[in-house]
Amino acid sequence: MARQETLWDHRDYKVYLRELLKARSATRSALARAAGCQTGYVTQVLNGNAHFSLEQAEGVNEFCAHGPEEGEFFLLLVQLTRAGTPKLRARLSRMVQREVERQTAYRRKESERPVLGEDQQGVYFSRWDIAAVHASLTVPGLRDRQAVARRLGLRPQRVAEILEFLLHAGLVKQAGGKWLPGQARIHLEKDAPQLARHHANLRLKALDALGSPLADDFRYSSVLSVSEEDRTRIYKLLNDFVSQAKEIVRTTRPAEAVHFLSIDFTRAFRD
Q1: Helix (H) or strand (E) holding 175
Q2: Backbone φ and ψ of 90, nearest 5°
Q3: I need a surface site. Which of 51, 117, 222, 251 has the fewest CB within 10 A?
């Protein structure tokens, strides 16, 4: 299967936006609302010599649900396309190339990391506490057994068992008496059987938390009645949110706490 192109594969933001609108079946009027301009002007930008201002491009960033690094790169592409002199264009081209090379190096590094085996994935997703302990090690203050046990409310013996499994799986390592994230990565396809157990584990934890809510917890539950078109729009909003949240998590420094995030948007009636 051919790799799907991303923003980082483009040098012309107009080509990128035309492809994105087509892939999402989105309208130019929706893009215009996000950019704060008329639909006719969007057409002039995408098909002609007009350009988005940086203020309009920032609105487009929100429409595209770009993460922090993607948003900065998109603004850089807009400036590159708007550049009025060869010297400025050359300078911006070098900046674009450096960002692309940095992202390429990151992707290559990620692809070279070993992937967790199927049996190990089954264990990893069998209980909520394994993923929670693993995530805790990204927090500088939670890199010893006792600290993790206290924060997650687990027995130290259970944390020791989990760390031993994670160590053998290559997901953690020990250095200077501390437990640190390892090199192995976890990759599940959408139809992987482990996903159902993972979803169930986190939703059970969410139910447990209802008994002792925190002031900054966020919960929303509702039964919605919408058209099929609007159902698709809501689905896209949720999907874009998850993509943006994952990018924020990837670039956050330093991590300070572990959170559970579960989102459900399902049909009430099954055919």
Answers
A1: strand 172-175
A2: -65, -40
A3: 222
